[in-house]
Design goal:
Blueprint: E1 6-9, H1 12-19, E2 23-29, E3 37-38, H2 40-49, E4 56-57, H3 60-68, E5 77-81, E6 84-88, E7 100-102, E8 109-113, E9 138-150, E10 153-164
Parallel strand pairs: 1-5, 3-4
Antiparallel strand pairs: 2-10, 5-9, 6-8, 7-8, 9-10
Length: 165
C-alpha cells in the first residue's frame, strides 16, 4: 500500500542538495526527550559517585526502540518544503536560470525558489511552512535512521536522498 508523502521542512542548503539528487543528513530533536538515558561510561561514573543512581545505561534494545518511534522510518517518502515566492506566471517566463513551477489549478501563478536565487531585488518569500504542495519540486526518501546525542539533546538523524518531482 502506497501512502501519500508527508511534508519535510528543510533549509535552503538542504533543499539545494536534495534537488540536485544528493544525500542529506536531517537532524530533528526528539520530543519529548528520553529520560536520563546515558552511555555505559557515563552511567558507571555517575553510579560510582552516587549521582543519579536511577539512570539506566543505554543499550542496543533501547536505541532500537527509539529508532522505531522515529517520525522518519527507513523507506518513507517526503515532499520537500522550502522557501518560495508565488508570482505571476509571466514574471520570469523567459529568464534564464530561474526555476519555475506553474500552479496546475490556476495557471496564472507560478512558484520560484529561494534556494539558488542569485538575483537582486526583493521577492515576497514565504516560509517553507507556508509552501503549497503543488509548488514542491523535490521528493526525498529516507535511506537510514539513527539516534544520536549532541550537546545533551537526543536527535533522530535521517539520511535522505533527493529526487526531482
Amino acid at each position: 500500500m502506497t501512502t501519500e508523502p508527508k511534508r519535510l521542512i528543510v533549509t535552503a542548503d538542504e533543499a539545494r542538495a536534495l534537488h540536485d539528487g544528493g544525500t542529506v543528513e536531517v537532524w530533528r530533536p526528539m520530543k519529548p526527550q528520553p529520560y536520563m538515558i546515558l552511555t555505559r561510561k557515563e552511567w558507571e561514573s555517575r553510579a560510582l559517585s552516587g549521582v543519579d543512581s536511577y539512570a539506566r545505561p543505554i543499550g542496543a534494545e533501547i536505541l532500537e526502540d527509539l529508532i522505531e518511534q522515529s517520525p522518519f522510518p527507513t523507506g518513507s517518502r517526503w515532499w520537500v518544503a522550502e522557501a518560495v515566492a508565488i508570482v505571476p506566471a509571466t514574471a520570469y517566463r523567459y529568464s534564464e536560470g530561474v526555476i519555475q513551477r506553474v500552479n496546475p489549478i490556476d495557471r496564472h501563478y507560478s512558484a520560484i525558489y529561494k534556494a539558488g536565487w542569485g538575483r537582486s531585488g526583493k521577492q515576497p518569500w514565504q516560509s517553507s511552512t507556508q509552501m503549497p504542495r503543488w509548488a514542491s519540486r523535490t521528493n526525498a526518501e529516507v535511506i537510514t535512521c539513527r539516534v544520536e546525542l549532541k550537546d545533551g539533546v537526543w536527535h533522530w538523524v535521517s539520511e535522505m536522498k533527493g529526487e526531482k518531482a
